[in-house]
Task: structure prediction
Amino acid sequence: MSINDVEHCEVVHKHSEVVLKVHREMPDEDKLYDLAELFKVFGDSTRIRILFALFEQEMCVCDIADSLDMTQSAISHQLKILKQSKLVGNRREGKQIIYFLADEHVRTIIDQGINHIEE
Result:
């Protein structure tokens, strides 16, 4: 794809006030990096399936694996990533570890994504 294939301005005219506003409002590079990393986590359908399962019910790894017809090892690996990204939390109940959504923001992000693709 060349630049001629993309719509662009036919004249060069800088809008300084627009550029200044963007510079003022732009988050710092660390925040942008963290945001990009967060969205990468949502880029895996297995992790999305786990999150959907946890929308319905807090569960242990065994139940998540059974619900998604996957191995416990595969689920554990994905849960580790979700936990590192602060999308899920866990607690111990006897010999089991119960996983749950970290907060309502997780559901909101997924719901917004669903709304977007259904438009």
